[in-house]
């Protein structure tokens, strides 16, 4: 039905293609590092610029900004950072919520809306409202940050230093009725002058009194050494020629007693109070009659000088008493002088048979206690009790057994003299 057109001819057979000629391979130029990333960023900026009415800021790593420009911008941002107040630092530990960014916005696509922001601090916090704000400290200074207590103490010290040099406040002016009369003021002036003169005199008087005490102490030491190194008759002669010497010696002795931890006369008084009050006592070397004032017994007081009306002035080797007329004989720190045997023989004479002899002496004076007790046995005394517990004083008690057996000197009856160091 259909006839082929005239132009239709049979297609010629495809000629055989020659083999491809090998060419030198031309390699494509290598792409720059980061080219695809930059191209994507440029495309993203173009799209965002078309969508927003204002231009976008340059992204980091853009070709227009070099590394030096980025460094300068960072330094400017550091300088422009506002200083934070101290109370903001205190509340920096509060929990902070991060701001969510919408999908269509990037980090550098401008500031988000106010509705998207969450406040960092509560708007009305009573703790923050009540706190007192101190002045903002400069962080660039090297001084350490002060605590609140240290800051308050520093302010107090500043006020005190400031008020230290202020003039004193004037006292309240008295009413005209209360004003002092001229006669009274003159009297006050005269009293003030008298007080000033008295104070100057007191200074001189104190110096004189101190020198007088030193002189009296030196004289007391001299008299004390004399009493230990001479006989009782010679000592009595010294005090007869100078009656004031005994008073001076007694004052020095009382000052010395105040330093002692124990007074032997008090122990003797305690022992005599346990004896019957009817016993008669003879106190050899009584001093100020302390023993007679402390007991109810009849006490005969003997000494080289009288400081009390009850004292009988005599040599203790010859007392005005009858034979065997005394129940108790006491030598309390009075065995002084070189004729100790005469004192003890006189005590044996006045004591009744079986009478009590009490001796209290300084512990350092005893050379040999055994020889001393043997000598007293030769003088007619037997040891009853002894108290050697105290390191300062020894207390010895004897009973009269009979008259003295030995008439001559006894070598064991020796006591060291109490001598003072040379000053």
Automatic annotation (TrEMBL):
GO cellular component, one term: plasma membrane
Keyword Isomerase found: no
Feature: compositional bias, Low complexity: 39-59
GO molecular function: methyltransferase activity
One GO process term, biological-process aspect: energy homeostasis
Keywords carried by this UniProt record: Chromatin regulator, Methyltransferase, Nucleus, Repressor, rRNA processing, S-adenosyl-L-methionine, Transcription, Transcription regulation, Transferase
Keyword Transcription regulation: yes
Superkingdom of source: Eukaryota
Subcellular localization(s) per the UniProt record: Nucleus, Nucleolus
Biased composition range(s): Basic and acidic residues: 134-146
Chain positions covered by the region annotation Disordered: 1-199
Subunit structure and binding partners: Component of the eNoSC complex, composed of SIRT1, SUV39H1 and RRP8.
Function text: Essential component of the eNoSC (energy-dependent nucleolar silencing) complex, a complex that mediates silencing of rDNA in response to intracellular energy status and acts by recruiting histone-modifying enzymes. The eNoSC complex is able to sense the energy status of cell: upon glucose starvation, elevation of NAD(+)/NADP(+) ratio activates SIRT1, leading to histone H3 deacetylation followed by dimethylation of H3 at 'Lys-9' (H3K9me2) by SUV39H1 and the formation of silent chromatin in the rDNA locus. In the complex, RRP8 binds to H3K9me2 and probably acts as a methyltransferase.
Identification of the protein by name: Ribosomal RNA-processing protein 8
Protein's organism: Sarcophilus harrisii (Tasmanian devil)
Gene: RRP8
